[in-house]
Amino acid sequence: MKTVGEDSDPDDVQATEPIRFGVLGTGRIAGKLAAAMARTPAVRAVAVGSRDANRASSFASLHDVPLSTGSYEDVLADPAVDAVYLALPPHVHLEWGRAAAAAGKAVLCEKPLTQNAADAAALAKACAAAKNGAGVALIDGTQWTRTPRAIAFRDALNSEAIGSLRRVTAAFSFHAEGWGDTEHRLDPHRGGGVLLDLGWYCVHAALWAFDDDPVRVACHLAHETNDSGDPVDVAASCTLTFPGDRTAGFDVSYGTAWRNWIEFAGEAGSLVCDDFTNPRDPEKVRHFYHDQRGDAERIELPPFDPQVEFLTKAAAAIRAGGDEDGVKLALRTQTVLDRLREAAG
């Protein structure tokens, strides 16, 4: 295997070798995925970049990353980096996603892709046009739809046990404490706000389940003033109406207790899961089936590591040249989030 700094071409990396990632950013989410990369044979973190060289060095030591640098540009220029993981605030995803694509690197981008649908489309276009039109892969960071749980849900949704899907209901919330004025999720200028953050998962799940786009949307946002005096949405309650009078509803919040549940309700039965984006116990992955009368059955899945499953599929998509269906779903999600914010007024 070639080491960091050796000349190489991502297209020449053998299928038995891991995809070599450069990580941009050293925050909490970057650390979680870097730790997962160490557990995933299909990928390897080979470089980390930060605007603070000391932070990058500490991150590299903690996660056994060979190269650290106080420059994002250095990571993009490294010929041993096949792909870039964008673990930066959403307002700079377009800038650094474009730069990564221009450098010939595949892009794994944390959700949301960008602050709005227009920027998300521009990012997808830049990735498709890279390498003289050959393109580089763009993978959005929504993990749960790339796990065995999503396969089990899809199989159930296509079965007679659920019947025709009529309703998706979701909730995602936690009580945020200890956030200072550096927290980008409370800064609307950096892509903050609960709708883009937690709302992404709920909208993404509804579009994934219905495989359709809503004809109408409604949204109520609750705001608080951050330390800089800017209003930022900290709670949202939304409804989506799909063709055929099918509906979805969700609420998200930074001010209520932890909730992470979803229900897919059909004419014959429903699926209920109270930890849908990430199993609380990966050794006991479960959800519930309710029949037409409401009688419940616990469904258990074999244990799996969600992040390893996600990274393995991301690596396969990078080798295949991209994830067209995933990009389309991410762009549709971003568009609906724009519509919801507009509907909120």
From TrEMBL:
It comes from the Bacteria. It comes from Alienimonas chondri. This is Scyllo-inositol 2-dehydrogenase (NADP(+)) IolU. Its EC number is 1.1.1.371. GO terms for molecular function: scyllo-inositol dehydrogenase (NADP+) activity. Residues 19-132 form the Gfo/Idh/MocA-like oxidoreductase N-terminal domain. Keywords: Oxidoreductase. InterPro entries: Gfo/Idh/MocA-like_OxRdtase_N, GFO_IDH_MocA-like_dom, NAD(P)-bd_dom_sf. Residues 153-271 form the GFO/IDH/MocA-like oxidoreductase domain.
